[in-house]
Specification:
Number of domains: 2
Mean pLDDT: 90
Radius of gyration: 21 Å
Helix content: 40-55%
CATH architecture of the largest domain: Roll
Number of strands: 7
CATH superfamily of the largest domain: Transcription elongation factor, GreA/GreB, C-terminal domain
Largest sheet: 5 strands, mixed
CATH class of the largest domain: Alpha Beta
Number of helices: 3
Low-confidence stretches: none
Distance between the termini: 25 Å
Order of helices and strands: EHHEEEEHEE
């Protein structure tokens, strides 16, 4: 099965790939050439650091190319499922105990970033939300314990 990714997530990964190929790769190649010009490579810290950075960049380029070639891009704005939570949904949750509200978007594993409110479809929170509707109360079992949340709003696009 091909891993899903939102169109916005695919665009972000493509932008990162382009940045690595057109900016960072040439910069590290120049840094290696400059470090080589300083002489003895055995004791040249700049050379070793630049080579290590080059290895990281090349590895990330290969990883992104592979992930993007295998991913199934899903245009969330074309989904018409009303207030049902499915892949790509932006969900506003209210904690039943505290009333604190949190907004998440359910995305593919490749693009998940909790700091930006992007949770992986394979996460416990996303699994508890999938198939539910606005107004439903869900119990989410996570490593930190069990919590109940009300789905306040479901949006797409």
């Amino acid at each position: 099965m091909r891993p899903p990714i939102t169109a916005q997530g695919a665009q972000r990964l493509r932008a990162e790939l382009e940045e690595l190929k057109s900016v960072q790769r040439p910069a590290v190649i120049n840094a290696i050439a400059e470090a080589r010009a300083h002489g003895d490579l055995k004791e040249n810290a700049e050379y070793h650091a630049a080579r290590e950075q080059q290895g990281f960049i090349e590895g990330r380029i290969k990883q992104l190319e592979s992930e993007l070639s295998h991913a199934q891009v899903i245009d969330v704005s074309s989904l018409n499922v009303g207030d049902k939570v499915v892949f790509g949904a932006k969900v506003l949750l209210a904690d039943e105990e505290t009333g604190n509200e949190t907004r998440y978007q359910i995305v593919g594993d490749l693009e998940a970033d909790i700091k930006q409110g992007l949770i992986a479809i394979s996460s416990p929170v996303a699994r508890a939300l999938i198939g539910r509707h606005a107004g439903d109360v869900v119990t989410i079992e996570a490593p930190g314990g069990t919590s109940e949340y009300e789905i306040v709003e479901v949006a797409y696009g």
